[in-house]
Amino acid sequence: MGSTADKIKGAANEGMGKAKQGVGEAVGSDKMQGEGAAQELKGKGQKAVGDAKQAAKDVANKAAETANKNL
User: Fold this and answer.
1) Given this model, what pLDDT does residue 26 score?
2) Phi–psi pair at 30, nearest 5 degrees
């Protein structure tokens, strides 16, 4: 999966997790709040993976650009 897809899925999971926590709080469901917190954390992790992939790609592109200039 590419960095953009990871970031999108992460943002979606983070948003759904926050919403689920809110609904759980509104209806008094500790289980739903816990599931929402877990989903939000999963989303944050996915976004971090996407950011790391993008950073690695940027470094590789910069290295290739520098190498091509030195040819």
Assistant:
1) 97
2) -65, -35
What token pair was written down for 69? Answer: 């200039």
Chain position carrying tokens 């999971």: 13
Query: Token pair for residue 9?
Result: 């899925």
Q: In sequence order, what are the residues at sequence separation of 6 or more whose Cβ sits closer than 8 angstroms to the Cβ of residue 16? A: 36, 39, 43
Instruction: State the virtual CA torsion across 22, 25, 28, 33 in degrees, nearest 10.
Output: 80
- Calculate the alpha carbon distances from 41 to 3, 28, 56, 63 in Å: 18, 21, 23, 33
What pLDDT, in 10s, does the model give residues 3-19?
A: 999 999 999 999 999 99
Coil, helix or strand for 29? coil
Question: What's the pTM?
Answer: 0.81
